[in-house]
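hey can u check if this looks right to u? its 163 residues, i copy pasted from the old doc so theres a chance i mangled smth
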Amino acid sequence: MCRCHHHHDPGRRALIGLIAAAPFLAACKPQDEGPEEIRWGRETCAICGMIISDPRFGAEVRGGAERDLLKFDDIGDALNWLSVQDWAGDPATEIWVRDYETGTRWLEARGARYVSGVVSPMDYGFGAVESSGPDTVSFEEMQAEVIRIGLSSRCLPLTDIGE
């Protein structure tokens, strides 16, 4: 029996999950690329430990030697966490962010555009959108601003951020 870490819920969600996971079930190994679903209201942010509850702001980073995936409640938390990893500049590092407008799709964060001035879980104020608009900024502009802001006062790291 394959001892993968996939949880099978009855019903439509299980079928959708099974279809999405099919390529990985066949190999019976952990996923090492792409975003993974977040259990909204159940999983916690990797940096501050708060429940990840708003699908419009979820973010994930996958990278490092083990290709580990970490989940965050706000792209600002994800980028501040990533900034202190020794592999932060590795082009193979994946950064995923949820689509702010629908909360239903993952966007590749570096290719997304960002609306500012929105109320986000950790007060960074950015929401990811797929296409450019007059009120959007690039990933680089958004990243510079969230790094300038630093960790939100609402986000007290579970451990020393440098670990």
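The beta strands are 59-63, 68-72, 94-98, 106-108, 113-116, 126-129, 136-137.
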